[in-house]
Amino acid sequence: MSKSLTLLLGAAALTLSSTARAEAPMNVVASFSILGDMVEEVGGEHVDVTTLVGPDGDAHVFSPSPTDARAVGEADLFVVNGLHFEGWLDRLVEASGYEGPIVVASQGIDALSFDEERTAHDHGHEGHGHDHDTGHDHDHDHDHDHSHGDDHGPEDPHAWQDLQNGKQYVENIRDALVEADPAHAADYRDNAGQYIEAIDALDAKVHQRIGEIPEANRVLITNHDAFGYFANAYGLDVLSPVGLSTAAEPSAADMAKLIEQIQKRDVKALFLENMTSPALLEQLADETGVAIGGTLYAGALASDGEASTYLGMFKHNVDKLTQALDD
């Protein structure tokens, strides 16, 4: 091979290498699986997503490892839920040395305080919807003491359980990707637009299907109180053995009150959560005779199958609810 040809091939290889580096996907870290899926939907081929709390993982009790700190430290973008959902966030960022943008996916959402949710659930469906004033303190006599070691603030962080809030998450992720990588802004906007259309279509379907359940049957009982936004958006009442955190433990009085409510309301089914122990719900089933109607996904996606995506998770949950409660 001639020297000139060798130089030419070398220059071509260098050009290809530079192009490959230029087209390398953006390194994005998401705090938990639902956000990870949203980032992948909006970012498409332009992002490489690392999820800290993976499928079936419980962000409430997550303890970041040195590997997690390293992943965050090397990220171009870090996407978190906010609303005090990631109680370990500040420690992780400090340990990682990360100084890049932190995208709070829930920014702009009209967050529900836990007291507002409980008031709505205790007094029927008058409180359902999005017209809540979260700026006031409440002093209500709740069914449960929800201070059992919760690391959350006064607001419910599970905002993605209302698909309209999910749209806000997607818009915030889109805007952050556009700002971080303007060269692919059109793709991010197109992907987000299609995703939002799918969210709107599913939202309408969820309203329709939940609306077909007899109103007296629309009582949702799960391991912990992660479905407040879902209940307020789609017209259900929520009861649970503990509050917002899966790390909480119910007292005997809590359990007795819940059993009384289950019997009084003639509850049709109890629902497990994929990321929590079934022990509490199994105890309730034994003591009330109410069957377990299946597993719902609240704060983590499934490892595979339909519930392994955000929209698939919603479809799965609604299918389980309607099958168990619509009689």
UniProtKB/TrEMBL annotation:
Gene3D superfamilies: Nitrogenase molybdenum iron protein domain. It is found in: Cell envelope. Keywords: Metal-binding, Signal, Transport. It comes from the Bacteria. The keyword Zinc-finger does not apply. Its main location: other. Belongs to the bacterial solute-binding protein 9 family. The keyword Lipid biosynthesis does not apply. InterPro entries: AdhesinB (IPR006129), Bact_metal-bind_prot9 (IPR050492), Lipoprotein_PsaA-like (IPR006128), ZnuA-like (IPR006127). Residues 119-161 are annotated as: Disordered. Residues 1-22 form the signal peptide. Residues 119-159 have a biased composition (Basic and acidic residues). This is Metal ABC transporter substrate-binding protein.
